[in-house]
Write a structure and sequence with these properties.
This protein has 148 residues and is an alpha+beta fold. The chain has six helices and four strands, in the order ββαββααααα. The chain has a four-stranded antiparallel β-sheet with strand order 2-1-3-4, with helices on one face. A hairpin with a 2-residue loop joins strand 1 and strand 2. The two termini are 25 Å apart.
Length: 148
């Protein structure tokens, strides 16, 4: 079986601090994996490099057949990354939040992905309360709707 993720010796530095130090990882297509470690061990930074959201300072590899450095936009179009804590801008309308996320992921066909109604012009916060959702749950739903 081929590898969905194949990275070797990934390094990420912020100034003089090395936050990811030569991580290598191979995950076969169709596998479900956990990525465990203590806070501050580089898990999030590693995943962000694999998903094309950060450029590695060293090492390299592929995600879904795309090079981590040269094909970051292609990786972002095919993957999704959801943080444990995630929020939308409550002062923007639902549509404005969706458009913002679509720009982040370079999604051009937002209109075909999102149902347009009078609700999408309303501020996000009241809608979130009406559907009895936590901010995180509502944000995940909205991001999923855009990214699927």
């Amino acid at each position: 079986m081929s590898l969905a993720i194949d990275v070797h010796d990934l390094v990420k530095r912020y100034g003089t601090r090395t936050v990811v130090d030569r991580v290598s990882l191979g995950i076969e297509q169709g596998r479900i994996c956990g990525f465990l470690g203590p806070n501050g061990s580089g898990k999030t930074t590693t995943l962000r490099m694999i998903c094309g959201l950060l450029t590695p300072d060293g090492g390299g590899g592929t995600c879904l057949g795309h090079d981590l450095v040269r094909e970051r936009d292609a990786i972002k179009r095919q993957t999704g990354y959801m943080t444990q804590r995630f929020g939308l801008y409550e002062d923007l309308s639902i549509r404005e939040n969706l458009e913002f996320i679509a720009r982040l992921y370079a999604i051009d066909d937002l209109a075909s992905r999102v149902f347009v109604s009078d609700i999408d012009q309303q501020p996000f916060a009241p809608i979130m309360h009406e559907i009895h959702a936590t901010p995180e749950a509502a944000a995940r739903l909205v991001v999923h709707l855009v990214h699927v």
